[in-house]
Amino acid sequence: MKLKKLACSLLALGAFCVNAQASVIKINDAVLELEGEVKTINERTYVPFREIAEAIGASVGWDEATRQVSATRGKRQLSFKAGDDFFTLNGEKLDIEGSVENIKGVTYVPLRSFSESFGAEVEWQANTKTISITVARPEEVDSSTEGEFTLSDVEINRADVELKITFPRKDYGSELNRLLSQNSEKKGKEFINRLEGEAKGAKFKVDISVKESYEDRDIISFALKEQVYMGDRKVSSTLCPLTFSKRENTLLSESEIFGPDADLKKDGKNTLINLVNNSDKFYFDSPEIIDSLEEIPYYINSYGRVVYTLGEGIIAPETLGNIEAEGNVQIS
User: Fold this and answer.
1) What global pTM score does this model have?
2) Helix %, strand %, coil % for the chain, to 5?
3) Which CATH class is domain 24-125?
4) Where are the domains of the chain?
5) pLDDT tens series, the chain, 332 aa
6) What is the maximum span of the chain, computed from C-alpha positions, in angstroms?
């Protein structure tokens, strides 16, 4: 399948589903204790609506006339009713993965779609079977992705490509802001070049979302999430880091970040191969696929550790979404 080959060639992450076998759910690093059961429906994780809404700080409402429930947090208001395969967010229809379910009188929602509707970041840690949800304070939600560089109608041999990059609305200082913009643009153009030869004549759009993932006294790291759309369809997504010295305002190399002896390629392959060897959910030839990869995408999490990522359909069925596993390499 052409799109699958495209995903593999880009080491894509894809629009991931939260893994159905999650053992732990965390919100801003705190373990979420639910009174209701966590459900698995079509290999997606569902949780009781009221409990997850209140856990992320949303107020819950009920409209008897329309039979709709609502959740309000900051400037975002979400409403829906049982059976809907969409949410209404601030009056606009928002398609979701799965649908709203009524199970024995309790409203259940797909965890990933609901959380992301409020601007949360959802990560699946395969080796610990943990779903990590990071949600900003309500007043930060609508100001988190302003600032934009757009490159439109770029001709890459055979396809028009539009590049859009969004940054956090935060002043890191003029020099660091310049470096972040400059290097994000460079990454975007490098990524576009990888599309050469794929889906000749298609119209591509590449969206890059830049988000801060780690910071200490000396360095700051950003995760660049690159999503590729062919027409209106998202076909792939991948992550990569940009890490800077706060003192020198310079882009740091891997050896400067992790030390000269760190071997991320080896650690990434070992981490992922160990993961697939301990589960029957992956393709039988996953170890060979992993071993053949020239690079393993990664980002640095809030603990300063490397998290390796592979996209849907590469080493497991697409229904499992993207695969992430925390490695042994960390900031030195």
Assistant:
1) 0.55
2) 25, 40, 40
3) alpha beta
4) 2-16+140-330, 24-125
5) 333 344 444 433 333 344 445 678 888 888 888 888 889 898 889 999 999 988 888 888 888 778 889 988 877 889 999 999 999 988 889 999 899 999 988 999 999 999 999 888 888 888 888 888 988 765 443 433 344 433 333 334 334 677 778 877 677 777 888 888 888 888 877 877 776 656 566 777 888 888 888 888 889 999 998 888 887 777 777 888 999 999 899 999 999 999 999 999 999 999 999 999 988 889 999 999 999 999 899 999 888 999 999 877 889 887 777 788 999 999 97
6) 65
